[in-house]
Amino acid sequence: MGSKYPVYGGGGESFRTDNFNREDEYVISRFAMAENCVRFVRGQFWMMDSGGTFSIKEECKNKLIKEFVGKVLLSKQSEIFACARGGAQKNINVDHFKKIKIPLPPVEVQKEIVEQIEVKQNAIEHAKAIIENLERERRYFGQSLRKLEGVEWVELGDVCKELFAGGDVPKDYSKTKNKEYTIPIYSNGVKDKGLYGFTKKARVNEEAVTISARGTIGFPEMRNEPFYPAIRLIVAIPKQNIIDVMFLKYILDTIDIYRNGNSIPQLTAPMIKGEKIPLPSLKIQKQMVEEMKKEEEIIEANKRLITVMESKIGTVLNTI
Q: Looking at the structure, do residues 184 and 85 belong to the same domain, yes or no?
């Protein structure tokens, strides 16, 4: 073990070591493959046998640029993942991988393509860095309040006029929204904001924050419309004369809510009523919320930029 160089296998960085055996290489996953099975690792790193790199044969170097091949492989990740075999753990079938066909334009065209892609890739990496830095900054949202004098810490139950867990999914519901079923049903989960389906009657008609009680324990989500909470999803309806609903959501994002349970951890409303959160004045709360909203806008704008640039890279490769 060490701390100097990252160690890569079939996925992202695993740990660090004091030695390296690769530098500036495209890594292809070999064992325990995921759909994101090709990546470029910049700088010096240690390559484990669960991943692999490639080189160009000496007799092909006059007609094929390694950087071009790497860009093509990045664009063919779904095809490479399809080479995997196995059940729970998918490992690459090398013979199938070697049969993947790549375009072979003239070297000068390869150089132009690499240059076009690198411009777009630099924009993507810059956008990802902005997102990463802002998301790291957002994790310190609550800590900044510790520096303010006179900020009271109160129990979550004291700032909520209601704090309860949802029950069973209503019998009368639809998986899709239509004229009859218009009220969203939310349950525990991150995907699609926990949307389970739609029903006819709301149980909550005020702005609220929901807290995942199972699965991704403690994950908070803002709810701005009438909804029906289900499957023990915890609902916090704030006293908006003392706490801003978005401020509550951001604070819950930053605290490590207590977890309980054996094989399946579970959170309950009584468990979190006593959780203490900082409560500055409403004026300060709203100022902090506005700052967070601006950061969110920047994050979303950079996510859109990444999508656009990735699409443009695909267009460049598809025109070969």
A: no
Residues 206 and 269 in one domain: yes
What pTM does this model have? 0.70
Q: Which two tokens stand for residue 228?
A: 């029906």
Which phi and psi angles does 313 have, rounded to 5°? -65, -45
Residue 7 domain flag? yes
pLDDT band for position 259 (cuts 50, 70, 90): very low
Q: Is the pLDDT confidence value at 207 over 90?
A: yes
* Helix or strand holding residue 293 (H, E): helix 282-318
Specify whether 161 is located in the same domain as 270.
yes
Q: Are strands 276-279 and 152-155 parallel, antiparallel or unpaired?
A: antiparallel
Average pLDDT value for residue range 222-243: 95
pLDDT in tens, 27-79: 888 888 888 888 888 899 988 888 888 899 999 999 999 999 998 888 888 88
Q: What is the CATH number of the domain that holds 164?
A: 3.90.220.20
Range of the domain at 313: 105-141+284-320
For residue 146, the number of C-alpha atoms closer than 13 Å in the C-beta half-sphere is: 7
DSSP string, 224-292: -S-BEEBTT-EEEEE-TTTS-HHHHHHHHHHS----B-SSS-B--HHHHHT-EEEE--HHHHHHHHHHH
b/e map 70-94, b = 16+ CB within 10 Å: bbbbbbbbeebbebbeeeeebbbee
What confidence tens digit (pLDDT) does each residue in 68-120 have? 999 888 888 888 888 888 877 888 888 888 888 888 889 999 999 999 998 99
In a domain, residue 147? The reply is no
